[in-house]
Amino acid sequence: MAASASISKSIYFGTYVHSKSLTELEIRPDGVIGVDEKGVIQFLETNVKDVESLKSRREEWKDAKVVKIKGEGFFFPGFIDTHTHAPQHPNTGLFGKTTLLDWLQTYTFPMESSLGSLSKAQRVYSNFVSRTLSHGTTACAYYATIHVLSTNLLADICLKRGQRALVGRVCMNSNLSPEYYRDMSIESSIADSRASIDYIRSIDPSGEIVLPIITPRFAPSCTAHCLTALGDLATETGAHIQTHISENTSECELVKKLFPDSKSYTDVYETHHLLRPKTILAHAVHLSAEERALIKAREAKISHCPASNTALTSGCCPVRTLLDEGITVGLGTDVSGGFSPSILEEVRQAIWVSRFRAMNHGDVHKLSTSEALYLATRGGAAVIGMEDKVGGFEIGKEFDAQMISLGTVAEEGNMEGKFTEGSIDLFGFEKWAEKVEKWVYGGDDRNTVAVWVRGRLVHSTSKFEG
Ligand SMILES: O=c1[nH]c(=O)c2nc[nH]c2[nH]1
Predict the structure, then answer these.
(1) What pLDDT does residue 2 have?
(2) Which GO terms describe its cellular component (predicted)?
(3) For a substitution probing ligand 1, which of 244, 258, 265 has the most ligand atoms within 8 Å of its CB?
(4) How far apart are CA 313 and CA 292, in angstroms?
């Protein structure tokens, strides 16, 4: 559904769940979250049995709208997708047995080049933004294509639908990119990037919902001079930067050949002034200890894309090592290397991949459910530079949230009419932590019945009674 136009002071009534820290998931039964007309959280309470007595205690909230969880469910912070490719959405699930470099040529570049058509871009981008919202993604770092107009259209759609987004026009000028899909010169690469940055800033001058992001595709797609010019553009505009790093071993070898004077893949970005606190590096599977230390020193961020890394057989990212070394990490769906637009799916995939690492490198590598949920929310918020605004429920934070509704099992076990409610079955014995675990391992978009960004309803299903 379309986002509602205005918001009213609202009280969200029901259990809420969020990460307190990397390892601690806080569950607040019978919670109340008071959100003002600007979408900012003004108060939180817990163990509230009846909202009328709360309203009588809080005089200024007596006319507030009440949004109550019906049945079994909870409020959870909106998910943050720190890396995805909107134009690749039609290819979701299509990758065969390819690996990164042949996958790009076989599937990705042909599809991306076709998004120069604005009518196709309209269809694909509207669909993708709806999809990501329906999975509870309230903020997303998007790659678009090399085309300025369709990149701008993606930003228009995000703004209209109310999804926070960083939207990047892809830069790729090297002759390793196909002739049919390439920036024709450094000048045009920079001019087109600048045009898109200016446009995105013009439609949302406050930057509350959409922001531009400078997007060199990855080192092999850009000449050294182009990377330098993009580094300069980042200095001039102060915009965020996103790119790929060290995803696949053949790609790493290619970077060595193309940039023989650089000490490492990370050093290529460092040399061209692209390694900064506002830089999001996707994948980071095969980094050396020196590279990780440089990323940490520059305060650049990492987007972990486990589904994609497995689908394209790129490798198992050593997330525990990244976290232990103090690097900021979030999750990315990386559609269509990744096969799902859902960050909940990435939570599961991050946990599975960590277990595969644990099988070879020890149990310490296992991520817990709480840790993966942290990466999906607070970790992601820090990756996109919004940790002061979103990622958890606290006074002063903006209300970016999803209402999760869980199923129940009738006494006689009858499932008639229940299949549309999702695949989680609650039998009544589950404690809150177990309900959350059942959602993480068995939930999907059928359980996400409503989604808000800054207190504005941006998605709901027929099961939501708002
Ligand atoms: O997963 C990926 N998706 C892409 O589109 C891409 N381009 C360069 N490197 C990439 N990796």
Answers:
(1) 39
(2) cytosol
(3) 244
(4) 22
